[in-house]
């Protein structure tokens, strides 16, 4: 930053409207105005006093905020649902900023979900090339052997997707109940990623929880709890993504 000036696409991303990459396209397409003048140059810098409009809507100048939420099962990872089901923001009613989830957890999956109004930060954490560890614990029906489990790392085809994990660790095997509990680490999480992999192998998941996201853990939190990330945690998460 120089004399309070920042690149226009960064300001748009930090407002939570969209990612920086999409903000650049909006600028190039002539969808952005600064002080009522259309701007198409990506190098344009703006000050906190400038008025910015994206697709005719004035940008709200909110301070970026970052929250961690322990999502319970049976909650939609969205800010609204047309079927009237519970959504994550129903649990964060006291948060004044307009925040949204970074990625998602399936309806029946519990655990860490991050929320923010900082589009650039969200894009940084979601992109698989940045390789942030997301650690899940799954309880499955059946007991796969080592050869089958190793297929999780090499990749499993499901509906034209190649689904894979980074590593796994067997936490518990119950031969009497014919169940296994496995810890799995992902960098990229596609829709129903772990459930689809295990179903393809023939070992359906009965319970799934995301217990770790980068350096963040649930640490004494209960389902439905949330807290604001500290500046140190935000900085460390940015550093993890930039390695």
Report on the architecture of this protein.
- The chain is of the alpha+beta class and 243 residues long.
- It folds into three domains: 6-58, Structural Genomics Hypothetical 15.5 Kd Protein In mrcA-pckA Intergenic Region, Chain A (Roll), CATH 3.10.290; 66-127 and 219-242, Pseudouridine synthase I, catalytic domain, N-terminal subdomain (Alpha-Beta Plaits); 133-213, Alpha-L RNA-binding motif (Alpha-Beta Plaits).
- Helices cover 22% and strands 30% of the residues.
- It is built from six helices and 17 strands.
- It has helices at 8-14, 20-28, 119-126, 146-154, 193-201, 231-242, and strands at residues 6-7, 32-34, 37-38, 45-46, 52-54, 57-58, 66-71, 100-101, 110-116, 134-141, 156-158, 161-163, 167-174, 179-186, 205-213, 216-217, 226-228.
- The strands form four sheets. Strands 7, 8, 9, 10, 13, 14, 15, 16 and 17 form a nine-stranded mixed beta sheet that branches.
- Strand 13 (167-174) and strand 14 form a beta hairpin.
- Helix 1 crosses helix 2 (20-28).
- The longest helix has 12 residues, at 231-242.
- The protein is elongated, with a radius of gyration of 21 Å.
- The mean pLDDT is 90.
